Amino acid sequence: MKNKLKKNAQPDSESGAYTRRKFIAAAGAATTVAAMAPTLLADDVPSELGAPMRPYGERSPYEKSVRISNSPLKTTGASLSPLQDLNGTITPSALHYERHHSGVPAIDPEKHQLLVHGLVDRPLIFSIADLKRLPSVSRTHFLECAGNSTGEHLGQLGATPQLAAGLLSCSEWTGVSVTTLFKEVGVKPQAKWVLAEGADAARLARSVPMAKMMDDAMVAYSQNGEAVRPEQGYPLRLILPGWEGNINIKWLHRMELIDQPAMTRDEAAFYTDLLPSGKARQFGVMMEAKSIVTRPSGGQHLPAPGFYEITGVAWSGRATVKAVEVSTDGGISWKLATLQQPVLKHSVVRFRMPWTWDGSPATIGSRCIDESGYVQPTSRELVEVRGLAAYHHHNGIKWWNLQANGDLHA
Amino acid sequence: MVTCMRKRIAFVLFAAVSAAATGMLAQTASKNSSAIPIVGQPATPAEIKQEDITVLPNGRGLPDGSGTPDQGEAIYKDQCAGCHGDNGQGKPPTGVTLVGGIGTLATSKPVKTIGSYWPYAISVWDYIHRSMPYTEPGTLSADETYAVTAFLLFKNGIIPRDEAMNKDTLPKVRMPNRDGFIADTRPDVHDTSAATKAK
Question: What is the pTM of this model?
Answer without folding.
Answer: 0.88
